[in-house]
Amino acid sequence: MELATGPERALAFRLDEAALCLAACGDPDLHVGDALCRLDDLAAVVPEPSLESLIETLFGPDGLQGDRDDYYDPRNSYLHAVLDRRRGIPITLSVILMEVGKRLDIELVGVGLPGHFVVRDVEQPTRYVDCFGGGTILDADGCARLVAAAGHRVGRNDFAPVGPRAILARMLGNLKGIAIQRKDLGLLQWVMALRTAIPGVDERAEFARLMAPLN
Hints:
Layout: H1 2-5, H2 8-12, H3 15-26, H4 32-44, H5 51-59, E1 65-66, H6 79-85, E2 87-88, H7 90-103, E3 108-111, E4 118-121, E5 128-130, E6 136-138, H8 140-149, E7 161-162, H9 164-182, H10 185-197, H11 204-211
Parallel strand pairs: 1-2
Antiparallel strand pairs: 3-4, 3-7, 4-5, 5-6
């Protein structure tokens, strides 16, 4: 957790590594260095350094897609497993898009909408990418309709970009919900330990309550 607890600016340059370290807690056989090389390889096959080309490469035929069959499979929160299975949830698919884009000098930021996660194009800030929807490009109204269809309401402040630390906290929050739903105390233990280590996330009382069955 050194990455997540250090300066936010340093973490911004290593979000891919931090997300993979998170995944390694769930899959001890994961070699983080090898997985980082896979992101390098994806960037190498993008024909040109544009958002459209990046989206086509990642989300084209046989590419990444949203897992609509088993959304709450924990593997959807592990970056390397998303690359293996080519299936994931909005936030992990978005992290892959952002981190491969970074290798091509395409500046993208994450936007944590209520119940959904999208990516914003920094150069054209009215454009958002719905990675779960196959890399569909939306405007703000399109994002609002997407959120409304899931029963949520979006406010103006919801379109603010979120930093890498908040992204990690949200990824862990997803896993926390999965662990509670499945009553998987082993998963819950390491997820809550990581969440409580992130600056600004104070869940120590809840951690103690949820861990009580292990004592």
